[in-house]
């Protein structure tokens, strides 16, 4: 059974930090939709709770540009996009720092998530829904949509947003991987200037 706390509950941030540090997943509001979060070392539980293919990467949410550059190497286009649209609904896929492959990074415009990431470091976060299904707009519905319980659900009211725009900035150009709240024309104009 999941514990539910309101976003404005003074214990919510401490409880979220404790659950994450114990390796437990949590449901949290973001500036777009409800997210299912864990520390990056515990992403397998996120995959299991969503019924998601293991081959699909999980993005990382950060509290600052410095945190972003601690996990990813930013190209010129990625840097321009980050400085224009962060904090906000843009996930930028970049080369992973100190390792192989890529990582999607986002600096959300949500005080609670930024405060949590400042405390525990970058957060592995995916939408709080079953794979292939819409993300529910309420905390209770988001928690109920998962294939099992999470340690904590932070209820921030309705999250009726659209999932973030996802841009691949790993090559010499950019590619829009998922349309979202930021128009493609604006992304391209910013990245290519």
Could you explain how this protein is built, in words?
It is built from 7 helices and 11 strands. It is an alpha/beta fold and 193 residues long. Strands 1, 2, 3, 4, 5, 6, 7, 8, 9, 10 and 11 form an 11-stranded mixed β-sheet that branches. Helix 1 crosses helix 5 (111-120).
Itemize the secondary structure elements and their pairings:
Elements (H helix, E strand, L loop, with lengths): L2 E4 L5 H10 L4 E3 L6 E4 L4 H8 L8 E3 L3 H7 E2 L2 H10 L4 E7 L5 E5 L4 H10 L2 E5 L11 H7 L6 E4 L9 E4 L6 E4 L5 H8 L2
Please sum up the structure shown.
The chain is of the alpha/beta class and 193 residues long. Helices cover 31% and strands 23% of the residues.
Helix/strand class: alpha/beta
Q: Oligomer, anyone?
A: single chain
Annotation field: number of helices: 7
* N-to-C order of helices and strands: EHEEHEHEHEEHEHEEEH
Low-pLDDT residue spans: none
Distance between the termini: 50 Å
Number of DSSP E strands: 11
Shape: globular
Rg on CA atoms, Å? 16 Å
What share of the residues lie within helices? 25-40%
Q: Percent of residues in beta strands?
A: 15-25%
Mean pLDDT: 95
**Which sheet architecture does the biggest sheet show?**
11 strands, mixed
Main attributes of the structure:
7 helices; eleven-stranded mixed sheet; 193 residues; alpha/beta; 11 strands
